[in-house]
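Colleagues,

For the teaching module next term, I've prepared a clean inverse folding example: a structure given as tokens, and then the sequence designed for it. I'd like students to try predicting residues themselves before seeing the answer, so please don't circulate the second half yet.
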């Protein structure tokens, strides 16, 4: 049983610049199945992810974890990860140090995490000179080293070529196999099929539909989701 799940969003909304980005919604995420937040560009996927992770404060409502103080048991990887001006290994060590891992364990755990994502041979290379795919794998290594119960992924392959995308998806599957709850936003139908167990379809800041993958794609229940699956809903 997870220490921090289920995660409940209660009457959650977010507005900025006089515009409602996330309309008031209620949502519960339980341990187990990988959850894909699907929707067109501008639907509010990234904002919803940041609200759940705690990077943004909701305008109304609240984010409720099963236990208090979940920040060290959940992690988030962004579309464009921020790299420190130090080596790949030092980037992972920094994450471990920030999480309070004893100094004597940090180097070993960092190397294990780099090995998990196939970057141990680049441990001493400057993180900022790595390719886009390598930087994304390094961001995943930082998360892996912390063994999070929940991993939020905000369109993690949006700017990558097909080869790098396959590598990132392989790491995401490894997290899933290891028992981490995956919550991932994407606008890619193929990626949602490959990595998700359930879909939350977001349209104009509202949850238009929630369904298992095997039900959502052959028979979407909402007209917005049906149009998106057919490629007829490019913008939210």
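(Answer key — instructors only)
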């Amino acid at each position: 049983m997870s220490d921090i799940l289920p995660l409940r969003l209660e009457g959650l909304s977010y507005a900025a610049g006089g515009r409602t980005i996330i309309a008031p919604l209620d949502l519960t995420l339980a341990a187990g199945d990988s959850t894909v937040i699907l929707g067109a560009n501008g639907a509010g996927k990234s904002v919803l992810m940041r609200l759940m992770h705690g990077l943004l404060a909701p305008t109304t409502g609240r984010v409720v974890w099963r236990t208090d103080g979940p920040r060290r048991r959940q992690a988030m990887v962004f579309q464009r990860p921020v790299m420190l001006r130090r080596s790949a290994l030092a980037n992972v060590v920094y994450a471990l140090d920030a999480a309070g891992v004893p100094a004597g364990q940090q180097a070993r755990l960092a190397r294990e995490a780099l090995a998990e994502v196939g970057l141990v041979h680049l441990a001493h290379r400057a993180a900022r000179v790595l390719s886009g795919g390598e930087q994304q794998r390094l961001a995943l290594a930082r998360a892996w080293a912390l063994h999070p119960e929940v991993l939020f992924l905000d369109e993690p392959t949006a700017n990558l070529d097909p080869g790098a995308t396959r590598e990132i998806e392989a790491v995401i599957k490894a997290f899933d196999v290891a028992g981490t709850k995956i919550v991932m936003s994407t606008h890619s139908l193929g990626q949602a099929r490959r990595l998700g167990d359930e879909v939350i379809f977001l349209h104009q800041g509202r949850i238009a539909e929630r369904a298992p993958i095997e039900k959502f794609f052959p028979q979407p229940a909402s007209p917005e989701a049906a149009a998106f699956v057919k490629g007829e809903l490019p913008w939210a």
